[in-house]
Automatic annotation (TrEMBL):
Keywords: Oxidoreductase. The keyword Oxidoreductase applies. Its EC number is 1.-.-.-. InterPro entries: Nitroreductase, Nitroreductase-like, Nitroreductase/BluB. This is NAD(P)H nitroreductase acg. It comes from Mycobacterium innocens. GO terms for molecular function: oxidoreductase activity. Residues 202-302 form the Nitroreductase domain. Transmembrane segments: none annotated. The gene is acg_2.
């Protein structure tokens, strides 16, 4: 245990920045409990997206992304954050306990990484293929420390089968009323600090040009753009050795690292998970990676189309997610 005391202002700022992490439908299923020497992260079981994510797997992935964002934010403030995952075997919603040690100096790359948190957003428009992919691919592979996580880049030839798996997922869910009701709820205009605003959804032909993503209610009726070229994004898959809560948390931490690395490289990203929510399509993704590991998240990576970058999505007020104890 390091047990160094950290100013509450530093912790508050780092938590606030970390909360810009991506989460399924922007559900932000997390809660922080902070003291001056340690911070605890909990899954908030009241914020699960149950029809899409009945086991809470993607909620834990979201919390993993938050956890990595928090470490990035603390590092930029000069603190090394040591993470103890699942410190209480009787409470698996207690995802991590984190304590701190001062760093000797803060390098510019660490500050850049923290700045990338505010630049990153989920971009659902069709992308152009990224340039100089080979060098980025090796950087992405080493952007996270966990050797158990596999990062696979799907070949262009995999695209038609993946698009087919995406259609299969939608078809299998066509009459799943609770799934569609839930999606409509999380994308309703009345959501203020949670959910996906209309401005963050690609519309009309832009959405239809992306064969590999979840279909949102807005995809079919609104039309903000003229005919779009088919998506040329690279598709990266993160897979884990098993399908436990620890696997999901590890995967979320790696997801954050990959997204921030892509953002630093000036590329747009979009996590895609509907394919992992249905056993049949998950099996196809696994087959395409050529690995026995369990696919958790796909990430579209590419060059964003010119024009307006989608505005940032809102977050819950800090007082709703962070409490300090003595
Ligand atoms: C576990 C997870 C699953 C996600 N699945 C999808 C998805 O299938 N399709 C999609 O367009 N976005 C997906 N997202 C992106 C979220 O909708 C997005 O992070 C959230 O709305 C917040 O917006 P932001 O990423 O722009 O900050 C996912 C994010 C996470 C962390």
């Amino acid at each position: 245990m390091t047990q160094a005391t950290v100013d509450t202002g530093v912790i508050t700022k780092a938590v606030e920045l970390a909360c810009h992490a991506p989460s399924l439908h922007n559900s932000q299923p997390w809660r922080w409990s902070a003291g001056s020497t340690a911070v605890d992260l909990f899954l908030d079981p009241h914020r699960l997206v149950t029809a899409a994510d009945s086991s809470g797997r993607e909620a834990v992935i979201s919390c993993g992304a938050l956890l990595d964002h928090f470490q990035v934010a603390m590092a930029a403030a000069g603190w090394n954050a040591a993470v103890d995952q699942f410190p209480n075997p009787n409470d698996l919603d207690h995802l991590a306990s984190i304590d701190f040690a001062p760093m000797d100096y803060v390098t510019q790359p660490r500050r850049d990484r923290a700045e990338a948190i505010l630049l990153r957003r989920t971009d659902r428009r069709p992308f152009r293929a990224p340039n100089e992919w080979a060098s980025l691919e090796s950087v992405l592979g080493s952007s996270f420390e966990n050797d158990g996580i596999e990062l696979a880049v799907l070949a262009d030839e995999a695209r038609p089968r993946l698009a087919e798996a995406s259609r299969l997922t939608e078809a299998l869910r066509r009459y799943d009323d609770s799934y569609h009701h839930e999606l409509a709820w999380w994308t309703a205009p009345s959501r203020e600090s949670e959910g996906i605003p209309e401005s963050a959804l690609a519309s009309g032909s832009a959405a239809r040009a992306v064969a590999v993503n979840r279909r949102f209610p807005a995809d079919w009726h609104s039309e903000r753009s003229s005919a779009s070229r088919p998506d040329q994004a690279r598709i990266v898959v993160l897979s884990t050795p098993g399908d436990t809560r620890a696997d999901a948390l590890d995967c979320g931490r790696a997801l954050s690292a990959v997204l921030l690395e892509c953002t630093l490289a000036g590329l747009a990203t979009c996590p895609v998970t509907h394919l992992t929510e249905i056993a049949a399509s998950r099996a196809i993704v696994g087959d395409l990676t050529g690995s026995p590991a369990v696919p958790q998240v796909l990430i579209r990576v590419g060059v964003a189309p010119s024009g307006e970058v989608p505005p940032p999505t809102p977050r819950r007020p800090l007082r709703d997610v962070l409490e300090f104890h003595r």
